[in-house]
Amino acid sequence: GPTKILGLVWDKVTDHIHLRLESLPSEQLTKRTILSSLQSIFDPLGLLAPTLVSIKVFLQKLWKNQYNWDEILRQQEQTEWNNILKRWDAIEFVIPRRVKFETGQCELHVFVDASALAYAAAVYLVHRGSGQAFLIFAKSRLSPVQGMTIPRLELMAALIGSRAIEYVHKHLKPLQLSSNWPQTLWSDSQVVLQWIANPGNHGRFVDNRVAEIRNTKIVCRYVPTDDNPADVVSRGCSPRELLHHPLWWKGPLWLCKDPSEWPKWKEHPTPGTENTSLLTIVAKGPHVKMRTKILHEPIIQPERFSSWRKMKHCVGRVLEFINRIRSPS
């Protein structure tokens, strides 16, 4: 029967772990009670990340609005919390934990994604012999409060993805399971894939993170957004939706097929070179998609300005500086 080990309920007969979500508070809401509810959910493997991201984002907003620990939430935040409650269910997840196979090739795949709210990575074990794939580890982080461009957030997702797959690989080694397993990182950001494929001259922030990703044995490939399970985290979903979400638990349908049937991506010329193609950046929020075509990261970041007047003033100063350095005198 089920046994509690390392904080998790494990059924040693069926080799499943049980993760249960309890009800969330609905009265006398404060930053302390909400944080306490979040911390009561023990999910060390990150398997329930898509359901928890909305609570984490809400808590981040309370910090941003400088709430005291025991200050009762104002009406606007109360309404937002009630919307979270409407989508919440106190249910139990039963997740298979078997990772050892007697024969057949195994592979590790990590899918990464980012939105304006969060970025995430989901690691899958694929067994070629049985044609099975299942989620074994996930990692997510909230996007910085001060704001960051979507390409940089996608790069941060790729970075935690490379670290996550290395972490899983390292901890499977003692079981003599993962010595020669292929490792693949999947991203739907063409900009990030360009950065990784063509390192250097992208600025210190980008170059340092690209160097760390390239300092692994991971092969980077393109995945369409609709087939990216990490997109489930960056957008969030309800517990009921997650319970029956095959993309999250098993990965895309083609993952167990022959690599010749995997998505293809034709690498464009490096941004900034002759005949550079326009790259599409998808800025993904919880309910909307905004597409912008750019050649490189913009100098002016609109999200950092509190008003149109301030941004217009800043653009004017930049143009004035450019004209000054162009002047022959």
Distance between the ends? 84 Å
Q: Which oligomerization state do the chains in this entry correspond to? A: single chain
> How much strand?
15-25%
| CATH structural class of the largest domain | Alpha Beta
Helix content: 25-40%
Using only C-alpha atoms, the radius of gyration works out to 22 Å
Q: Any idea what the CATH architecture of the largest domain is?
A: 2-Layer Sandwich
CATH superfamily of the largest domain: Ribonuclease H-like superfamily/Ribonuclease H
Structural class: alpha+beta
Structure, explained:
The protein is built from ten helices and eleven strands. The chain folds into three domains: 2-94; 102-294, Nucleotidyltransferase, domain 5 (2-Layer Sandwich); 302-329. It has 329 residues and is α+β, with helices and mostly antiparallel strands. The protein has helices at 31-39, 49-64, 75-86, 150-172, 190-197, 204-214, 230-235, 239-243, 246-250, 308-326, and strands spanning 2-5, 8-11, 16-20, 92-96, 106-114, 118-127, 132-142, 183-187, 219-222, 279-284, 289-294. This is Pao retrotransposon peptidase. InterPro entries: DNA/RNA_pol_sf, Retrotrans_Pao. It holds the Pfam family Peptidase_A17.
